[in-house]
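Q:
Just now I want nothing more than another pair of eyes on a protein record. Here is the record:
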Amino acid sequence: MGQNYLFEISFLPSIYFFSVFSQKEITLEQMENYQKRSFRNKCVIASANGPLLLTIPLKKGKHEGQKIREVKIAYDEDWQKLHLSTIQTAYRNAPYYDFYIDKLHSLYQHADEYLFNFNLLLIRKIAPLLSLSTFNFTNEYVECCQGIDLRGVITPRNYHQIRMPKYNQVFEDRLGFLSNLTILDLLFCLGPESINYLKSVDLTEALKAI
């Protein structure tokens, strides 16, 4: 598999993350502190009006600097229902929506008290759909890792700058191609062909604009 890639854990990670997962060894950072304005509790889907952020609300308090494994999800509002309704509106006409949506409903019913655990559950359940399985965790936090350090590299501000190969998307006729959305977009649009797409991505070339 070659060189190891290090990522922070994300909510329904990007297509680029899973492209790396399909081609290289990956390690998930579990010893860091939470950082705002990141994908740790956000993902981007394609809506009729353009890219749309889905956000997991967090319990009130100061999260910046809190250990990532200690950050708790808030359930004051039914955000799971809102997410699923938004996803349905966006993707109900996608070719493989019906094939995957029940699996997603099941995952949302098991939302954890802790953000890290819920994100990890999603990754572990989505990975087999792509014939992927194995990854590692950090045992301590280090500023500079051995390998390719992508912690904090892909953010809600620059994710779209990653150059991913085009595939047919639901709203492409009106929005053009939207690059590097959540893995859900790829699954709903390409289904079983998603893994072939992921393995075809030139990982180095995709990052050149970042």
Remarks:
- Residues 79-91 form the longest helix (13 residues).
- The helical segments are 15-23, 79-91, 97-108, 115-126, 172-175, 183-190, 194-200, 203-206.
- The CA atoms of residues 84 and 115 lie 18 Å apart.
